[in-house]
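Researcher: Checking consistency across runs. Here is tRNA1(Val) A37 N6-methylase TrmN6 again:
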Amino acid sequence: MTVETVDAFHFGKFHVVQPATGGHRSGMDAMLLAAMVADEGSLKVADLGAGAGAAGLAVASRLLQADVTLIERSPEMVAFAYKSLALSENNHLASHVRIIEADVTLKGKARVAAGLEDEVYDHVIMNPPFNAAADRCTPDALKADAHAMTEGLFESWIRTAGAILKPGGELSLIARPESIADIIAACGQRFGGLEVTLIHPREGEPAIRLLVSAVKGSRARLVFRAPFVMHDEGTHRFARFVDDLNNGRAAYARMGRKRRPV
C-alpha cells in the first residue's frame, strides 16, 4: 500500500494528496507553472500530465471562474487526483475541476475518443518529465514514469496542446534549460510569440529551470525575459516576487499584460 501525505499549498487555500515517497511529489515547479495562467474571467484550462493535480488545482483555487481539466495517464496518480478533489478542504473547487485519465501523446481520433477534443481550451499548462535517458533511473516505477523523458516528448506533448487549444490560446510550460531547443522545434508552426524566462537559484549560478509561454497561431518573435533569481543573496529565503508566485499571491502574465496581484 502506498503511503500518502496531504499537503497544503497557497497557505492552505487548497490541499493535495500525494505519494509520500514513491511517484512524483509536486512543489514549486507546479506552483510557478500555475502562476503563468493570468487571464481573468471565464476560461478553460487543461493541465497535461497533471499527476495528483497540484498545478491545476492551484489555477482553480486562484481563478475561481476557471474550469480546469486534469489530464493524467497513470491510474495511480489519477487516484491521487480524485482523492485530492474529494478533500473537504477542496470543496470550493469541486464544481470547476474535472479529471481525465488519458495519455497526452495520443493522436487524432484516439485522442478525441479519450476526451481530449479539438480547440476546447483557452490555456494549456504542462510540466513534462525532465530526466534525460542518460540520467540515473530511479527504481521506483511510478516516479520513473513521471520523470523519465522519452525521445520526441516535447513534440508529442506540444502537438496535443496545439490540437486542444482554441486559436489564439496560450501554452505555458516549465522545463529544464537544456530542453529549450526541443521546445522551440516542437512549437514550430503551431505556436509563436514564445517568451522564455530562466530561473536561477542565486545570482551568478546557472539556471535550473525555464518558463516558456507561447500563443497558438502567433507569428510574433521569440523573447527572452528578465530572469528570476529564486533566493535572496546569502539566505535560503525566496525572493519576494518568487514567493508571491509560489504562494498564489501573484500571476506571471505574458509581456504586455499587467502583473496582477491576487
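Researcher: Does this match what you'd expect to see?
Model: One thing to look at in this run: The mean pLDDT is 90.
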